[in-house]
Write a structure and sequence with these properties.
It is built from nine helices and no strands. It has one domain: Orthogonal Bundle (Globin-like). Bound molecules: protoporphyrin IX containing FE.
Length: about 190
């Protein structure tokens, strides 16, 4: 297996992954200013978004069972804050690390990644509503797509980090774990 390919992306780890993703999104100062302009509107619309978010999750047993015994009022507040922070105008390593930690909380409750990824639909819907308040809606929508894509990538990264870590322990190394996951056999 030692002759199998090694990809340069495999060498990017931990903090460097977050820095790479931020750079990949290519958020320019205009994008950032447009998102920041929407920050007060995001605060206003956030409770409505949180209601739509939890209405969908509580409507089916596979997702609602995660909330048994959880403080729902507090969770409405945390998802609202998470949404508002998309419009904070600061997308640095502290921002990305915080979002990665949130992803990790979902890994640790045994939640399949398809659910949080699918729920980005609700976030997208409310982000689309918000950009109507922008002085340049089409460009603001483009900027919103960038920060949302960044979050989707970070959420997924939390899951991948966890899977790789455990598989690497089992098979004796991360490179081998990546080869196993890729299904490369010869
Ligand atoms: C767009 C997708 C999602 C986002 C942005 C999100 C965001 C958050 C945030 C910000 C918190 C608070 C974390 C903290 O305590 O610091 C949280 C907690 C939680 N989330 Fe999510 N979430 C998402 C999807 C889901 C889904 C699909 C489920 C379950 C079906 C879920 C279940 C939970 C639970 C149970 C907690 C509380 C964990 C605990 O404190 O024990 N989340 N989420």
């Amino acid at each position: 297996m030692s002759s199998e390919p090694t990809r340069s992306s495999w060498a990017i780890k931990d903090e460097a992954v977050l820095a790479e993703l931020i750079s990949l999104m290519d958020l320019n100062p205009t994008d950032i200013a447009m998102l920041k302009e929407l920050h007060p509107h995001a605060r206003t619309i956030a409770p409505q978004m949180a209601r739509a978010f939890y209405t969908r999750l509580l409507a089916r047993s596979e997702t609602s069972e995660y909330f048994i015994g959880k403080p729902m009022a507090a969770l409405h507040g945390t998802i609202s804050d998470w949404f508002v922070d998309l419009f904070s105008g600061t997308y640095d390593s502290t921002y990305a690390r915080k979002r990665l930690q949130i992803g990790l909380i979902h890994v640790k409750i045994g939640l399949p990644v398809r659910y949080p990824l699918a729920m980005m639909d609700v976030i997208l819907e409310y982000g689309q509503q918000l950009v109507a308040h922008s002085s340049t809606p089409a460009q603001a929508l483009r900027a919103f797509h960038k920060v949302l894509a960044l979050d989707i990538a970070i959420f997924n990264q939390a899951y991948e980090d966890n899977q790789l870590k455990h598989l690497a322990e089992l098979v004796g190394g991360e490179r081998l774990a990546r080869i196993v996951l890729a299904g490369i056999t010869s």
